[in-house]
């Protein structure tokens, strides 16, 4: 049962006591049993230090101070009001005093709090209104005209301009009626000069106002207002010039400015990008009417450009012959329906948008269009890349990637500079991607059965190229050149090895299980190399000698054969021609670097770091040793690894680590080749219970 309306539950605290939750009868509030109750106030539930009675008093004081005849008192009051208006409790108290009306009257008359550049930048009015206590519709037309006049002036104090733009944006977003009034007062052309300055805050608020007008505009007006990038329709020359100018201004003064783009500006550019691309939604969701002659003429135009044929009226021959010719050509163009390709464009999305893209590509990139069509029509049927089907599916894919038709996210900053570099960026984007699709098709040596696989690879190529945020369409094209099908496969393999599944317990256990096999393989390779032998140069402590000596391991891995040579051999030296032998069983240790006996001798060798890194020695019997200076680092690693393997010790060279990593990764990829897109469980599946009988077992005997 709810408490009586006169009972208020509040938390009260006073010095020397813990806070208490008390029920207060508002009718007999003066009967509270608190000592000196007039010195207490109710604390607000938020994290501020204000108290409800204190905020009410402050609101009353500021309401009076902003009406003072003294300019200094009024300015100080407005400064304090700007700071306090962020608090909802204070805002409620100030609005109850009819503070909104007071501020709007000041704006309409003197504009004192607007013109003082010493005040904090956020608008006092906007801070108060953003609490949602009163409706934006309460503002008068005179107030709107006053705010708009400051935006439309060629020179205005930056603080005033920013606050004016902020209020206009809030008005448009919060009221459809105010949108109509604001749209009558300002135009895109009047906002353009504010984008040409150097103040990024002003530029941000200007684009925010454009986005707000864009978002709230009726559909028919939005088509005209938002042809900033001239995506599809043809407009009057004056509109085209204005829109090109606006796009160019944003590109040169905002995107390519020397100042880094902050998060709020990036969000507004993302909003503009999304809202602009959403213009495509109407065509994307429009089915083609197979009976519409104007729409069918577009398909005839695609055929005419590709095959350089005349229109129907100039064709001679029977109707059946012409139909057969059209069917043949439509098949070469890659349509699914060869008899009536208009049916292909009844799928939504992408609807008529796909046909728009194809026609633009055929007209504005005619050489590339003809090359793709003729190149594929000359291939075998199973290897041809169907241009018509590819264009339809690609258009649908691009709409999905760019989220055409979806509302912009409030927290996203993902804008792409390259879409601001061309008046018809989306269709140019399509032209680049359709050529990429044809190139990838050839690289994959795809057939018609591989169509979906090719589209998946193309999607990955496009999304990876977009991730790099190219500054222009040319840079995007160059990025795609580096993302060939072969490169995509390499990236996929690399990412597979780094994804979480490859760090899971089953995968790590598999690596541990495979590793001994790989180490044994490396060991055998090292021993085989020792059996082949190596020619070493003899070096004394006094001078480099021109003599050589050769050492190799016997095929049974039990004896080292070595002996002097007059010159470097051209191939392997037979072990029976080497005079000296050292049984492997007699080897006590292998030492390297400065621990070698011949590196401890006085002389130049001790000072030669390169020689020191290639030195190793075999110790045998009591104090006998066989000294080596490897010809290079590779031979050094092969011999030290091989000798350690003979002694049953671990092979620790950097070459062994590299070989182990390479071979282990290759083996893992081969064993997991069939597990793509399959989630590997952390624990093995349970072993089923034993069957009740084994009667199903077949006795081969």
Which segments are poorly predicted (pLDDT under 50) over 5 or more consecutive residues? 27-41, 44-51, 117-121, 226-241
Oligomer category = single chain
Structural class: alpha+beta
- The whole-number mean of residue pLDDT values reads 82
Shape: extended
Helicity, as a percent range: 40-55%
Strand order of the largest sheet: 3-4-5-6
In DSSP terms, counting alpha (H) and pi (I) runs of 4 or more, how many helices?
29
Strand content: 5-15%
- Structure summary, number of beta strands: 9
- Could you tell me the radius of gyration in angstroms? 41 Å
Brief summary of the model shown:
It holds the Pfam family ELMO_CED12. One of its GO terms (molecular function) is SH3 domain binding. This protein has helices spanning 52-65, 71-84, 88-96, 99-108, 112-115, 124-129, 141-152, 158-174, 176-185, 188-195, 200-216, 219-225, 237-255, 263-277, 281-284, 293-307, 319-332, 352-364, 366-377, 387-401, 425-443, 451-467, 473-481, 485-498, 505-532, 597-600, 609-613, 633-646, 654-671; strands spanning 7-12, 20-25, 534-539, 544-553, 559-565, 580-583, 587-592, 615-620, 624-629.
């Amino acid at each position: 049962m709810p408490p009586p309306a006169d009972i208020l539950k509040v938390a009260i605290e006073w010095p020397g006591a813990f806070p208490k939750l008390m029920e207060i009868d508002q009718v007999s509030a003066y009967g509270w049993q608190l000592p000196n109750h007039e010195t207490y106030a109710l604390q607000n539930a938020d994290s501020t230090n204000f108290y409800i009675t204190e905020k009410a008093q402050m609101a009353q004081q500021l309401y009076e101070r902003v009406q003072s005849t003294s300019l200094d008192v009024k300015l100080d009051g407005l400064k304090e009001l700007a700071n306090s208006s962020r608090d909802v409790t204070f805002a409620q108290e100030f609005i109850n005093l009819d503070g909104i009306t007071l501020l709007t009257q000041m704006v309409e008359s003197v504009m004192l709090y607007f013109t003082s550049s010493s005040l904090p930048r956020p608008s006092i009015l906007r801070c108060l209104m953003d609490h949602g206590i009163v409706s934006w519709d309460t503002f008068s037309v005179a107030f709107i005209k006053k705010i708009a006049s400051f935006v439309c002036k060629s020179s205005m104090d930056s603080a005033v301009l920013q606050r004016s733009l902020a209020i206009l944006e809030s008005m448009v977003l919060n009221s459809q009626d105010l949108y109509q009034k604001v749209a009558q007062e300002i135009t895109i052309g009047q906002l353009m000069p504010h984008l040409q300055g150097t103040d990024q805050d002003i530029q941000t608020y200007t684009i925010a106002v454009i986005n707000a007008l864009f978002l709230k505009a009726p559909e028919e007006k939005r088509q005209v207002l938002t042809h900033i990038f001239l995506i599809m329709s043809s407009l009057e020359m004056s509109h085209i010039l204005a829109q090109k100018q606006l796009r160019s201004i944003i590109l040169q003064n905002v995107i390519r400015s020397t100042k880094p783009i902050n998060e709020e500006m990036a969000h507004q550019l993302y909003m503009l990008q999304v809202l602009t691309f959403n213009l495509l939604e109407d065509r994307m969701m429009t089915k083609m009417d197979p009976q519409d002659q104007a729409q069918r003429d577009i398909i005839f135009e695609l055929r005419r450009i590709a095959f350089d044929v005349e229109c129907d009226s100039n064709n001679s021959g029977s109707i059946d012959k012409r139909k057969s010719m059209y069917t043949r050509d439509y098949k070469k163009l890659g349509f699914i329906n060869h008899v009536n390709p208009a049916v292909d464009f009844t799928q939504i999305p992408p609807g008529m948008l796909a046909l728009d893209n194809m026609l633009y590509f055929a007209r504005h990139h005619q050489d590339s269009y003809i090359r793709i069509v003729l190149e594929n029509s000359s291939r075998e049927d199973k290897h041809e890349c169907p241009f018509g089907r590819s264009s339809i599916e690609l258009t649908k894919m691009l709409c999905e990637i760019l989220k055409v038709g979806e509302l912009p996210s409030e927290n996203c900053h993902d804008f792409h500079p390259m879409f601001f570099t061309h008046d018809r960026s989306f269709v140019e984007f399509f032209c680049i991607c359709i050529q990429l699709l044809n190139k990838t098709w050839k690289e994959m040596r795809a057939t018609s059965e591989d169509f979906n696989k090719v589209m998946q690879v193309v999607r990955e190529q496009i999304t990876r190229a977009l991730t790099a945020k190219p500054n222009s369409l040319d840079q995007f094209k160059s990025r795609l050149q580096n993302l060939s099908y072969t490169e995509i496969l390499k990236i996929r393999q690399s990412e597979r090895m780094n994804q979480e599944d490859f760090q899971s317990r089953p995968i790590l256990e598999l690596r541990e299980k495979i590793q001994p096999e790989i180490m044994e393989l490396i060991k055998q390779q090292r021993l085989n190399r020792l059996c082949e032998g190596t020619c070493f140069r003899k070096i004394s402590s006094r001078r480099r000698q021109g003599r050589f000596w050769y050492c190799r391991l016997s095929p049974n891995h039990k004896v080292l054969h070595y002996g002097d040579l007059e010159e470097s051999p051209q191939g392997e030296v037979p072990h029976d021609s080497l005079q000296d032998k050292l049984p492997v069983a007699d080897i006590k240790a292998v030492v390297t670097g400065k621990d070698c006996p011949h590196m401890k001798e006085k002389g130049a060798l001790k000072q030669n770091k390169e020689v020191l890194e290639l030195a190793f020695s075999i110790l045998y019997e009591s104090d006998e040793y066989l000294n080596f200076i490897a010809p290079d680092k590779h031979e050094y690693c092969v011999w030290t690894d091989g000798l350690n393997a003979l002694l049953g010790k671990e092979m620790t060279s950097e070459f062994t680590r590299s070989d182990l990593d390479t071979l282990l990764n290759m083996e893992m990829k081969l064993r997991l080749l069939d597990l793509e897109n399959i989630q590997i469980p952390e624990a093995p599946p349970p072993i089923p219970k034993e069957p009740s009988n084994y009667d199903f077992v077949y006795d081969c005997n």
